Amino acid sequence: MLLAIDIGNSNITLGGIQEGEILFEARLATDATKTSDEYGVEIKDMLDLFGARVEEIRDCIVASVVPPVFNSVRNGIVKLTGKEPMVVGPGIKTGINILLEDPGATGADLIAAAVAAVDAYPTPLTVVDMGTATTIAVIDDGNAFLGGAVLPGLRISAEALSSRASLLPGIQLERPRRAIGKNTVECMQSGLMFGAAAMVDGLIDRMEAELGRPTTVVATGGVARFVVPLCRHEIALERDLQLKGLDLLYRKNRPRKEAAPNPR
Asked: Who's near 219: CB < 8 A, 6+ residues apart?
């Protein structure tokens, strides 16, 4: 079993993958104050919860966009499994040509999502990842990562609105009953939910106009399931895009087994 770990700003996603099949998926809260021992224990607890044994882990791969947390998680994995994880970063083979000014600065989560999307969907592609931040990336017919956009995530927007405006309450992220709200909560739900969908739709329109042709649009991330149904574009929803991408990256980069010596 491959243990795949995606370290995000809000959550750490763990996945157990066997022959391309995701056996389980779990989430931990990202916490920069936790030690490697604490992360090791939490990962072990999650394995136990899903009936997986440490002995079943043949290898590990990690993607991280949170440098202060990466080392703690990595060291926790080494202590738990005795294996040094493969790390998504500069030098890893992706099959994608990153055409940014600084390719090495591309987020590991974006790379994993792009690799999985290119493997499963026709190009050109627009990949929308709706997590702590919402990121939108465009991949052309030649599997070139052209760039994209970054904007505040839905939860950040909701928290900023309720914390900075004294008369606005915290609300649940759910489908609004109507665009023209009739009370404070309805107005906030309309603005946040339909506003997020309109931003995604609008950016897709602008990016496709620059590209000169329509794209296949794929969305992933924790809040994508709330926003995608409100969008006017046809968007494929992929819950496990990063984990699938990590599995593909591992298979592209795993060390070859040494050949058995020839008998004499």
From this structure: 127, 128, 129, 130, 200, 227, 228, 235, 236, 237, 238
Is 116 in contact with 241 (CB distance < 8 Å)?
A: yes
Determine the Cα–Cα distance for residues 106 and 123; give it in Å rounded to an integer: 20
CATH code at 2-87: 3.30.420.40
Q: Which of 40, 24, 25, 30 is nearest to 82 (CA)?
A: 40
Per DSSP, the three-state class of 167 is: coil
SS3 content of the chain, % helix, strand, coil (to 5): 40, 25, 35
Per-residue pLDDT of the chain in tens (264 residues, 90 and over written 9): 999 999 999 899 999 999 989 999 999 999 999 999 999 999 999 999 999 999 999 999 999 999 999 999 999 999 999 999 999 988 899 999 999 998 888 889 999 999 999 999 999 999 999 988 999 999 999 999 999 999 999 989 999 988 888 888 888 888 999 999 999 999 999 999 999 999 999 999 999 999 999 999 999 998 999 999 999 999 999 989 999 999 999 999 987 653 344 444
Active site residue 119: no
Q: Are 153 and 131 in contact (CB under 8 A)?
A: yes
Tokens (6 digits) for 224 = 């994508």
Fold annotation for 97-249: Nucleotidyltransferase; domain 5 (3.30.420)
**Structural element, H or E, at residue 243:** helix 241-253
For the chain, give every residue range classified as CATH 3.30.420.40.
2-87, 97-249
pTM of the model: 0.89
Q: Of 109, 129, 240, 247, which is the active-site residue?
A: 109
